């Protein structure tokens, strides 16, 4: 059954920004018209309880008696929509619109069905019609923002997300999407503003906090980022989602060095005889993962009065070959020191003479 929890994340590939998310739709909207009619009461109750198959049995029988009842046709379409039977949903939304073309929400759901079917051009037409009839419709306005973002028309996308926030400043979808677009454009101040709003609205969202950390690192606001690192650990430890609880590292920065892209990660756990404090994953321009350069700690180092050493995992044919350098530290080096060492490594100025098969568990 199709779910309607707002959940957005963004990436940028060349000029296109792809946004994947689920639309917030409420059963209450379906029941908001003519619920007092006795012939709809049982079906309405079934829809309210999300028993759409049973509701359809009743509604389809009533359709035989009232084939031109637009509210009835819409409810049938909505039930198919929730069951992810998109072709049938499209048929009944179209019937409802043909019977009564003045109801904005019919176009809203018609557009949503097209969107989930991958027909974003058709979806765009229906959402535009919806906001023409109801300029204050928050869902259609936000969906237009999502469509234009997916098409790479980021200026129009931002306009519609901002309009959605004029309607509802606490629209999580619009705030998150704006934060993602500004982040991809490098406007870190505006991105931070909207991610912080998202955090206030949903402080348990792992992705929001992760993006905030990376945003703050790119602005070199390291102390502020530490607060969100602690929060991210709390979210991970209290989460019931294995995709989060099984994470060993979290991403906190991304930056270029020469022709490489570096993704910086930090370990959630910094204990044991052997662990990696930081992992800097090195990618080439095509996105191929070449190596990991690590800040490592081990019991042997500590026995020799040191805490950390620079190591490397070279990725070859999907396998990793570990080695260590001669660069070691008695205390945790600064982030700027580490970035300087990374540059020297990628310039070939640092040797890794010691090979090992050891890796943190």
UniProtKB/TrEMBL annotation:
InterPro entries in the record: CellSynth/LPSAsmb/PSIAsmb, TPR-like_helical_dom_sf, TPR_rpt
Keyword Repeat: yes
TPR repeat start and end residues: 70-103, 104-137, 138-171, 172-205
UniProt entry keywords in alphabetical sequence: Repeat, TPR repeat
UniProt xrefs under Pfam families: TPR_1, TPR_8
Bilayer-spanning residue ranges: none
Coiled-coil region list: none
UniProt keyword Cell inner membrane present: no
Source taxon at top rank: Bacteria
Name the record gives this protein: Uncharacterized protein
Organism: Leptospira neocaledonica
Lineage start: Bacteria, Pseudomonadati, Spirochaetota, Spirochaetia, Leptospirales
């Amino acid at each position: 059954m199709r779910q309607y929890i707002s959940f957005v994340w963004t990436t940028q590939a060349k000029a296109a920004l792809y946004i994947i998310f689920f639309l917030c739709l409420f059963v209450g909207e379906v029941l908001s018209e003519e619920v007092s009619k006795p012939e709809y009461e049982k079906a309405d109750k079934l829809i309210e309880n999300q028993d759409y198959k049973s509701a359809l049995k009743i509604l389809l029988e009533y359709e035989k008696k009232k084939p031109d009842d637009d509210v009835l046709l819409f409810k049938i379409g909505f039930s198919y929509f929730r069951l992810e039977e998109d072709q049938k949903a499209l048929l009944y939304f179209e019937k409802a619109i043909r019977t009564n073309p003045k109801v904005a929400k019919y176009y809203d759901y018609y557009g949503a069905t097209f969107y989930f079917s991958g027909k974003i051009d058709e979806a765009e037409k229906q959402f535009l019609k919806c906001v023409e009839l109801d300029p204050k419709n928050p869902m259609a306005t936000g969906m237009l923002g999502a469509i234009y973002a997916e098409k790479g028309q980021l200026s129009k996308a931002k306009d519609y997300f901002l309009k959605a926030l004029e309607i509802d400043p606490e629209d999580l979808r619009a705030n998150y999407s704006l934060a993602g677009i500004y982040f991809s454009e490098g406007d870190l101040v505006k991105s931070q503003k909207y991610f912080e709003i998202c955090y206030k609205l949903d402080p348990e969202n792992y992705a929001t906090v992760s993006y905030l950390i990376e945003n703050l690192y790119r602005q070199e606001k390291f102390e502020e980022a530490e607060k969100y690192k602690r929060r991210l650990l709390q979210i991970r430890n209290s989460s019931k989602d294995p995709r989060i609880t099984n994470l060993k590292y979290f991403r906190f920065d991304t930056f270029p060095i020469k022709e490489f892209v570096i993704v910086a990660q930090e370990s959630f756990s910094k204990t044991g005889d052997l662990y990696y404090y930081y992992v800097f994953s090195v990618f080439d321009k095509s996105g191929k993962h070449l190596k990991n350069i690590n800040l490592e700690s081990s019991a042997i180092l500590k026995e020799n009065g040191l805490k950390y050493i620079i190591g490397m995992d070279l990725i070859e044919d999907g396998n990793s070959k570990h080695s260590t350098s001669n660069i070691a530290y008695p205390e945790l080096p600064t982030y700027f020191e580490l970035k300087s060492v990374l540059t020297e490594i990628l310039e070939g100025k640092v040797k890794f003479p010691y090979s090992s098969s050891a890796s943190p568990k």
